[in-house]
Amino acid sequence: MPLPAPITSRTNARVKALRAAFSGDAARPGDLLGIEGEHLLSEAHRSNLPIDTIFLREGNEPVLDRPSLAGLTANHTVVLSRDVFASTVDTASPQGIAATLLVPPIAPRDLTQPFIHLVLESLQDPGNLGTLIRSAEAFGIAQIFLTPDCVNPWNPKTVRASAGSVFRMPIVRDKLSSIATAFSTAQIKLFAAVAQSTDATPAMDVRLIAPCALMIGNEGAGLSAEALALANTRIHIPCAVESLNAAIAGSLLMYEALRQNTLAGSLYPLSSVLDPLSS
Does the pLDDT value for residue 275 go beyond 70? Predict the structure, then answer.
């Protein structure tokens, strides 16, 4: 199908919509989100998300013929001149393809099932959150809980750092006290990750067997006193430094939980969370 002539005006309505979609304001299901790059479009397509509009940089039209984008469709496809395209996306070296889509509704997981969950308190860096979302999907975490002051999971930087995992990972935002109450009711043990100290147990010496939840705190301050008081057990990662980056620490703990549950042959239904698109 022939593509339309390139849009050359930065004030064009579709151009304005794309620029707004990259503003970081999208936060709730139904909000318009901007994504950029072949990989993210491929991940959105793999996640069965309907694409509203595909935006191509002039001269980059053949990207639609690549195998990774086979079958990709959208309500609209437009071409932007090179300078107009560069003015809309928020990456330093744009790949020449972007799109808008609606933030998808992702149903939360059933807390009565033997899953492993991740709780993030006051996380502020979008790159850290995106990395943790990616690791959560990779290591079979059922869902992520965010406190109200955490960074927006649909921030464009978070979406990029998640490499598309945010399209599939259930994320619940709630007060820490409410999260802890729900876990207590469902008999889910809450493990608080802290820096190395005498009152914390090495992660490999604790049974991180589902159902349980791992809790990671703010990049600088760590977990609050409230969070520590709500936790059942404090754990740390033995290493040659006092503490690790939040994303690295969380990823290591999620892997350790996956390892333990795999070796234990627990009732943790890994297949249902490791391949969410199969359900």
Answer: no
